[in-house]
Inverse folding.
C-alpha cells in the first residue's frame, strides 16, 4: 500500500502562541537551568499502525494541544524517522519550542535518538520527555477508547513533567584503554584477540586452568567436519603470545565496581599450588600423584589426578593442584625437578581498572539426570552429546574408538531435544545446535562403524544455517535413519537397551533396541557465572540467558553501558554465530576506548544546603558513599563522581532537601497529579 | 473516564532496569492486560518516596503499584529493599487512614518477566475492582503527606 506524497504534518497551534522564535530565557536553578516559560511541542507517533490501530492519534493530538504550556501538537507516521526528527528540529528552531514531548515507543528504545534530535537543534537533551504509548499502551490494550484514554493520561503526565524539566550538562569522562573479557571459551578468545589487535590491553579471565571452553572438548565441527582442536588451539596459542593480552586463568571475577569507562574488577587469582614460572609441564607430577578423580574435561569418562592440566594442549600449559582433593602426600613435590610445587600458595586478589567489559561466560550442558525416564545415570551406555564428543575424539579416553565397555555398538540411537523445547524441565527454547551436532555425530558413527545401525529420533530437524541442510541430506544418504518420534522411556532389555517411543508420523508406539543411546542435551545458562552476572547487575531473559539491550538492534550491548555480550551466555548458538557476536562485542568495546572519552549521565543527587539540617540520614542509605558530611557548613555534600543517581537519598531525606536531578519530587508529583486528572 | 462507570485508576512506579523493561517486554510480546495503570519511570524503586505514594492516594488513586528488581538483583544494590521497607510502613499508615493496605502493591518483576508484569497488572486491577473506589478523605491524607516529609526510612 503506497502512501500519498508526504503530507504536511497536521499541527494544532493555540492562537496565543508567539510565532516568532522565542529565545528561552535562562534562569539557572541550583539543580539545573530552567527556562522561565515552557513552550512545549508534543509529537504523537502513529508508528505505522502500531500505535494508530488502537489509539486515536488525532484525538490525542487535540487533547495535547489543549494542555497548558503546549505550543504545538502534531502527529506523524514515524516520529523517529528523518523527516519526523526534522519536524521537531524545525519547531525548536523556528517556533521556539523549548520542551519536547514525544508520544512514541518506549524511552528505552528511542530516548537516545530524540535526545540527539534536541541537541542538534540546539536544545538541551534533558528537555525531552517520552510518553510510552506503544509498549505500554497500544500494544497491550485492545479497546480503542480505553487505549486512547490511557494514551492521553500518559501524554498529560509527560507534559506536566516536561514543564518542570531542567537543563543538565552531560559530562565526559576519560575511558581506561583496557578491556576485561570474562570467559575464555571461543567467544572470549575471539573478543580478546580482536580488542588486542586493535591495540588495547585485554585482561582475559577464565575460571578453569586453561582457556578453550567447550569448543576444546569437541571432536569435529558441523557442517564442515573440520577438527575443533585444529581450528581452536592455534587461537589459544595466539592469545597466550599476544603482547596485549594478559591471561588470567584459574581466576574469577568477584566484583565489578565503577561505571562506563572506569570500571574496577576484583579478580580472585586462585592458588594453583604450582609456581607457573617454574613449571615445565613435564608431567612427572601427574605420574607420581596417587589421587584419582573424575576427569571433567572428558565428561567423567576417564579419571585424572589431583594435580592436573585439563588437556595436553592447555593454554597456559601448566599444572594445578585441586585443593579439595589433594591429600598433601608430597609425592609430586618430591618428583618435581624445577621445584615448582608450593603447598603454601594462597589466593590473591587483584583489582583491575578497565574501560569496557565483554561477558562471555558460556553455557552448561543440560543435566540429563533431570530426565529420569532416559536412565542417564542408571545405564553406562546412555550418554550425553558432550560425552559422545570425548568418546569419538582421538584425544579422548578411548582415543576415538566408539566403544561401550569393550564392545563396539551395533545399534546407536540419538535422541533430540533433551532439555530443550521441553516445558516439563522449564526450557521452552530451542538450543539451536543439537540438531546439527546430532547429524555430525551420526555421521561420525557411520564413518567409524559403517556396519552400525544409526537411528535419530527427532521432533523437527532445524537445519537453518549455511551448509546445514546439505549436511543433513548427506547424513541421511549415508544411511542414518531419521524417525520423527517422541521417546518416552529407556529400559534394559537383556544385555542391551530399548527405547520406547511414539512414532509421530505412523502414530504408533515403537521399541528400538540399542547398544548406545546419545542424548542431544541442550544448553542452559552457565551456573558458575551467577556471581559475576550479579556483580555486573545484568538482566536475564525469561529463559535465563543474559539479556541484550535490544533483541534486534543492540544484540551485543547490555542495559549497562560499557558491558557487552558474546556467545552462549546470551543465547544458545553455534561456533560461527558465537565468533560473529564476539567480534561484534569486541568492536563495541573498542569504540569507546578508541574515542577515549564517554558521556556520563548527569543524573545525580543534589543537596539544597539552605535546607539541609545535617542529620546525615542520607549518608547511611547511600551504597556508594557519595554523600559526605561537611563539618564546617554542617551540611551534606554529594560527590558527583561517585553518585550513581538511584535517588534513594532523596526518598529518605526528612527535610526534603536532597533531590535527584531529572527525577525531582516536583517532577514526579506533577506526573502523579496529571495521571489522576480526569481526561 | 465517565463517572457512571467506575474504573480503577492506578498509579504505577517502575524502576528503569527491571520492571519498566519488563513492562516493555509485555508490550513487545503483545500481552494484553487492563489499561488502568499508568507507569512512572524512576531509576530505582528506592527513589520512591512515601510522600509520592501518599500523594497518589490523596489525589484519588484507587491503587498504587511499585515494581522493582528481584532481591539481590537491584541495579543499585539495595534500592528494592528500601522500597520494601517504605511500602511496609506506608501500608500501616494507610490502614490508619481507612485505606485498605492491599491497595498498595509491591512486586519484583525483572526485565525478562513480561508475562509476570501482565499477570500482575490483571491481578492487581482485579483486586482493586473488588475493593471498589478508594474512599479517601483528601484532607486527612494530605496531612499524612506532610507528616511523611519528616519521617525518614533508611534501609
Amino acid at each position: 500500500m503506497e502512501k500519498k506524497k508526504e503530507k504536511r504534518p497536521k499541527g494544532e497551534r493555540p492562537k496565543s502562541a508567539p510565532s516568532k522564535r522565542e529565545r528561552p530565557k535562562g534562569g539557572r536553578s541550583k539543580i539545573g537551568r530552567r527556562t522561565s516559560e515552557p513552550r512545549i511541542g508534543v509529537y504523537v507517533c502513529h508508528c505505522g499502525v502500531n500505535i494508530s490501530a488502537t489509539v486515536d492519534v488525532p484525538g490525542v493530538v487535540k487533547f495535547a494541544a489543549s494542555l497548558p504550556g503546549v505550543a504545538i501538537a502534531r502527529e506523524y507516521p514515524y516520529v523517529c524517522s528523518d523527516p519526523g526528527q526534522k519536524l521537531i528540529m524545525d519547531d525548536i528552531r523556528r517556533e521556539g519550542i523549548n520542551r519536547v514531548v514525544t508520544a512514541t515507543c518506549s524511552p528505552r528504545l528511542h530516548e537516545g535518538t530524540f535526545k540527539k534530535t534536541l541537541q542538534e537543534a540546539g536544545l538541551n537533551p534533558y528537555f525531552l520527555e517520552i510518553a510510552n504509548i506503544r509498549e505500554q499502551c497500544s500494544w497491550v490494550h485492545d479497546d480503542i477508547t480505553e487505549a486512547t484514554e490511557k494514551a492521553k493520561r500518559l501524554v498529560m503526565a509527560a507534559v506536566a513533567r516536561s514543564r518542570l524539566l531542567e537543563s543538565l550538562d552531560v559530562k565526559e569522562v576519560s575511558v581506561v584503554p583496557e578491556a576485561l573479557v570474562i570467559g575464555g571459551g571461543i567467544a572470549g578468545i575471539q573478543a580478546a584477540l580482536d580488542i588486542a589487535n586493535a591495540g588495547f590491553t585485554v585482561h582475559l579471565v577464565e575460571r578453569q586452568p586453561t582457556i578453550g571452553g567447550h569448543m576444546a572438548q569437541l571432536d569435529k565441527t558441523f557442517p564442515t567436519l573440520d577438527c575443533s582442536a585444529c581450528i581452536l588451539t592455534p587461537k589459544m596459542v595466539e592469545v597466550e603470545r599476544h603482547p596485549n593480552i594478559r591471561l588470567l586463568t584459574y581466576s574469577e571475577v568477584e566484583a565489578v565496581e565503577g561505571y562506563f569507562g572506569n570500571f574496577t574488577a576484583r579478580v580472585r587469582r586462585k592458588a594453583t599450588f604450582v609456581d607457573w614460572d617454574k613449571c615445565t609441564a613435564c608431567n612427572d607430577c601427574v605420574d607420581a600423584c596417587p589421587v584419582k578423580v573424575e576427569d571433567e574435561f572428558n565428561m567423567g569418562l576417564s579419571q585424572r589426578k589431583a594435580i592436573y592440566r585439563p588437556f595436553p594442549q592447555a593454554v597456559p600449559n601448566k599444572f594445578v593442584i585441586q585443593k579439595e582433593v589433594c591429600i598433601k602426600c608430597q609425592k609430586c613435590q618430591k618428583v618435581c625437578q624445577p621445584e615448582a610445587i608450593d603447598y603454601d600458595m594462597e589466593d590473591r586478589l587483584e583489582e583491575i581498572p578497565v574501560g569496557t567489559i565483554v561477558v562471555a561466560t558460556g553455557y552448561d550442558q543440560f543435566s540429563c539426570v533431570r530426565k529420569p525416564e532416559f536412565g542417564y545415570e542408571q545405564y553406562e551406555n546412555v550418554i550425553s552429546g558432550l560425552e559422545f564428543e570425548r568418546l569419538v575424539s582421538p584425544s579422548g579416553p578411548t582415543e576415538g574408538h566408539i566403544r561401550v565397555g569393550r564392545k563396539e555398538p551395533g545399534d546407536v540411537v540419538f535422541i533430540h531435544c533433551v532439555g530443550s523445547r521441553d516445558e516439563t524441565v522449564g526450557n521452552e527454547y530451542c538450543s539451536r545446535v543439537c540438531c546439527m551436532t546430532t547429524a555430525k555425530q551420526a555421521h561420525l558413527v557411520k564413518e567409524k562403524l559403517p556396519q552400525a545401525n544409526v537411528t535419530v529420533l527427532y521432533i523437527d530437524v532445524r537445519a537453518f544455517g549455511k551448509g546445514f541442510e546439505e549436511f543433513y541430506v548427506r547424513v541421511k544418504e549415508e544411511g542414518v535413519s531419521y524417525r520423527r518420534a517422541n521417546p518416552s522411556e529407556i529400559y534394559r532389555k537383556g544385555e542391551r537397551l530399548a527405547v520406547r517411543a511414539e512414532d509421530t508420523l505412523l502414530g504408533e508406539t515403537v521399541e528400538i533396541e540399542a547398544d548406545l543411546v546419545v542424548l542431544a542435551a541442550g544448553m542452559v545458562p552457565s551456573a558458575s557465572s551467577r556471581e559475576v552476572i550479579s556483580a555486573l547487575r545484568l538482566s536475564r531473559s525469561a529463559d535465563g540467558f543474559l539479556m541484550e539491550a535490544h533483541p534486534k538492534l543492540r544484540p551485543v550491548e547490555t542495559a549497562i553501558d560499557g558491558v557487552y555480550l558474546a556467545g552462549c551466555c546470551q543465547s544458545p548458538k553455534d561456533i560461527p554465530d558465537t565468533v560473529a557476536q564476539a567480534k561484534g562485542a569486541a568492536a563495541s568495546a573498542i569504540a569507546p576506548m578508541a574515542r577515549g572519552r564517554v558521556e556520563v549521565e548527569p543524573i545525580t543527587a543534589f543537596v539544597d544546603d539552605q535546607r539541609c539540617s545535617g542529620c546525615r540520614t542520607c549518608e547511611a542509605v547511600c551504597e556508594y558513599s557519595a554523600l559526605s558530611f561537611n563539618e564546617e557548613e554542617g551540611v551534606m555534600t554529594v560527590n558527583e563522581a561517585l553518585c550513581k543517581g538511584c535517588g534513594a537519598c532523596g526518598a529518605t531525606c526528612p527535610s526534603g532537601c536532597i533531590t535527584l536531578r531529572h527525577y525531582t519530587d516536583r517532577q514526579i508529583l506533577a506526573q502523579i497529579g496529571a495521571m489522576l486528572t480526569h481526561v | 473516564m465517565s463517572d457512571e462507570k467506575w474504573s480503577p485508576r492506578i498509579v504505577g512506579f517502575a524502576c528503569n532496569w527491571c520492571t519498566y523493561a519488563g513492562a516493555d517486554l509485555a508490550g513487545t510480546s503483545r500481552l494484553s492486560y487492563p489499561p488502568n495503570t499508568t507507569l512512572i519511570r524512576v531509576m530505582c524503586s528506592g527513589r520512591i518516596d512515601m510522600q509520592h505514594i501518599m500523594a497518589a492516594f490523596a489525589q484519588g488513586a484507587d491503587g498504587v503499584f511499585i515494581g522493582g528488581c528481584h532481591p539481590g538483583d537491584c541495579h543499585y544494590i539495595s534500592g528494592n529493599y528500601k522500597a520494601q521497607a517504605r511500602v511496609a510502613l506506608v501500608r500501616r499508615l494507610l490502614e490508619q487512614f481507612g485505606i485498605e493496605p492491599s491497595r498498595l502493591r509491591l512486586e519484583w518483576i525483572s526485565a525478562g518477566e513480561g508475562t509476570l508484569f501482565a499477570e500482575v497488572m490483571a491481578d492487581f486491577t482485579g483486586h482493586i475492582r473488588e475493593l471498589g473506589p478508594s474512599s479517601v478523605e483528601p484532607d486527612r491524607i494530605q496531612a499524612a503527606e506532610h507528616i511523611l516529609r519528616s519521617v525518614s526510612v533508611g534501609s
